[in-house]
Amino acid sequence: MSEQVFLNAPYLRELAAEVIAHTPEGGVVLDRTIFYATGGGQPGDSGYISWDGKDLDIATTVKGEGDQIVLVPAAPVALPEVGVKLTQHLNWERRHRHMRVHTALHLLSVVLPLPVTGGQIGSEKGRLDFLMPEAPDNKEAVEEALNELIDRDLPVTESWITEDELDANPSLVKTMSVQPPRGKGTIRLVRIGEGIDQVDLQPCGGTHVARTSEIGAVRIGKVENKGKQNRRVNLHLDN
Prior knowledge:
Blueprint: E1 3-4, H1 5-8, E2 14-22, E3 28-30, E4 32-33, E5 47-51, E6 54-63, E7 69-73, E8 85-90, H2 92-111, E9 116-121, E10 125-131, H3 139-151, E11 156-162, H4 163-168, E12 186-192, E13 200-203, E14 218-225, E15 230-237
């Protein structure tokens, strides 16, 4: 099992850990990690690990068997042996941009309160696919409303509920294409805003900024037709 430190400490850039396994494909499994594994439309983290004067570049991170998180080397080289203690170094700039885009997409689902059929997060842009028969009449109004939410500097926090509580509140799940992972008994919720200022609450296992103002200005790109009832809305970071 790999402890998912990134869930509770998304701003941690370095972390000591121990190698607990290798995968047949040449990946490294650690006892705890700050590297987010590809999932929910968010790419796996990159960076490097260091031990005994050696460095190993990590190209991406993926989910392995059970609760394992696998760091995938950028090249097929000798791996640190099982039991070796090392330090993880996160490619912070790339991760932080993912956090900004991911949180912005949550707010986009507030501005466009429609069922979400898919999504993707990148370091420069992201997109959500909506069950939307017609494109928005005024793309500029959507962009303005989104940036107004960002400028409110709302806190972004997390909490946990049981699977039974989620079943009793199915409206919390906005995404039709990806359901929250089950089997552990609890589901992580990401909340934007507090009290009467709460604007969003939904299950999510990704990483987010601490406050909406950290996202910075965004702009709405193309709105693409992806089927009779489906529209893809693209979102770009301004810087």
